[in-house]
Amino acid sequence: MTERRLKVPALLGLVLAGFLAACSTTSENGGVTPVEIPAASLSYIVLAWNDLGMHDLNPTYNKEVILPPYNTIWAQVIKRGNPPEIVTTGVTLEYRIVDNTYSYGKGTGLPLRIYGQFWDNSFDLFGVSLAHDTGLNLVDPNIHNGLSGTMVLKGNHFEVDGVPVVPINDAGTWDPYQIAEIVVRNAATSAELARTQATVPASDEINCAKCHGQTIGTVAILSVLAEHDKLEETTFVADGVPVLCADCHGSPALGQTGPGSSEFYLSQVVHGFHSTTSAACYNCHPGATTKGNRSMAHTATDGNCTACHGTLADITSSITNGRIPWVSEPKCVNCHTFVAEVDTGSTLYRNANAHNGLSCPACHGSPHAQVPSGKAADNYQALQYQNKALPLGSCKVCHGSSKGGGLTGIVEAHGGSQPTSCMVCHTGPISTNNPREFPHRFQQRSR
Fold first, then answer.
1. How many C-beta neighbours within 10 Å does residue 433 have?
2. How far apart are CA 278 and CA 266, in angstroms?
3. At 258, is the pLDDT very low, low, confident or very high (cuts 50, 70, 90)?
4. Which candidate, 176, 101, 170, 110, places its Cα nearest to that of 133?
5. Averaged over 259-274, what is the pLDDT?
6. Does residue 176 have a cis bond before it (omega within 30 degrees)?
7. Which residues pair with 92 in a beta bridge?
8. How far apart are CA 173 and CA 29, in angstroms?
């Protein structure tokens, strides 16, 4: 009986904390420049990533509000061996946002940023009174995480939800690519087993006031709430209270399961309204500065958003015709049609796993920031583990018995695109097996 196991690239090793500190240099993003360490010296490795690759948040919270400061980090711990195993017991995972210890009280004058309004108005907006610098949690509502703490086990991975990070560090520098440091410890002794860093993106380029409430050319554009009052006969401006758009227009991004009392999803009305204007994706989504889509293989100057998601009109009509925003999104196999193994079915890429439970983003990177990324911080783990900004692909870092030094070396040593000895165990579904397409065109089979 054929056993299909190998679907995503194997993982590469993580630097031990003391060795990392001794062999690293400070980088421009406040973290460290990773240095490759022989995998044989490691007992445990850890991979960590942001679930979305980019998170939007409002710059102010006293008028229309779309998204709160809310970031989610996932991590998987692997014990090297033959075979390696995903570790879920006997360890604790700590996280902290590097050089960013508080959010309340941060902001700037121009453009206007007053993040503290989120906490000042949290009960009116979200029905929860939050202590400063703690966040909402749509997964575990009774846990309000801060900018440092302990991750929670969720199945075969660890997770922290609702980290209320804003794009200004403690030095006052605006940077949408904040950095999380993840440390794995022995639960009984607190001894450090492994550590890494991951990008925790937070962009406030979703600022509606860039256009609304401004005069552009000769056209005066009403504020969002004034526009809504005019078209829908609401009284938001006169009421003078902050308005969460998802109160009426359901947003699965905020855990809602339906279109809300308006019977129109928020994504549907926002994209539909702007589809008749000259608005482009990066006018609202992060962004010309933030580069919400940073994967070098998938991006262009405008983010290449429409290649996967379609135009604003396409997005609107697909929701009108039954698609649920945030729940049903483009799939890798829509473009990578020659590799059936990348079809995650009804599961989104960010939630999918293969190769005995490894998450797809663990090897390939976060959505919209797959490795290689145009932002150095996104490539941190790829450089740390294999000294090259490519999706992780060296077997030896997890598999203690592996002799491989990395995919590129193996391929070139065996004749480039010619069949290799790998095919003795890893045979593909078609007659032509190109090792450069490893591992998605290869399947592990029992012989």
1. 19
2. 19
3. very high
4. 101
5. 95
6. no
7. 185
8. 11
Tens digits of per-residue pLDDT, 167-208?
A: 999 999 999 999 999 999 999 999 999 999 999 999 998 888
Pick the closest to residue 318 from 263, 249, 271, 253 (CA basis). 271
Bridge partners for 365 per DSSP: none
User: What separation in angstroms does the CA of 101 have from each of 68, 76, 172, 180?
Assistant: 18, 24, 12, 11
Helix ranges (H only) for 346-406 are 360-364, 380-386
Work out the number of other CB atoms within 10 angstroms of the CB of residue 214: 12
Cα-based angle 224, 229, 233 (whole degrees, multiple of 5) = 155
What's the confidence (pLDDT) of residue 318?
96
- Residues 358 and 361: their CA atoms lie apart, in Å, by 9
pTM, two decimals, is 0.84
- Nearest alpha-carbon partner for 447 in 419, 422, 429, 424: 424
DSSP state letters, 422-444: GGGTEE-SSS---GGGTTTT-EE
78-101 pLDDT, tens digit each: 998 888 999 999 999 999 999 999
**Cα(316)–Cα(190) distance, rounded to whole angstroms?**
51
Residue 121 CB neighbour total at 10 angstroms: 17
The answer to whether 354 and 341 are in contact (CB under 8 A) is yes
CB count in 10 Å sphere of residue 170: 14
Residue 190 DSSP SS3:
coil
Tokens of 322: 């039954």
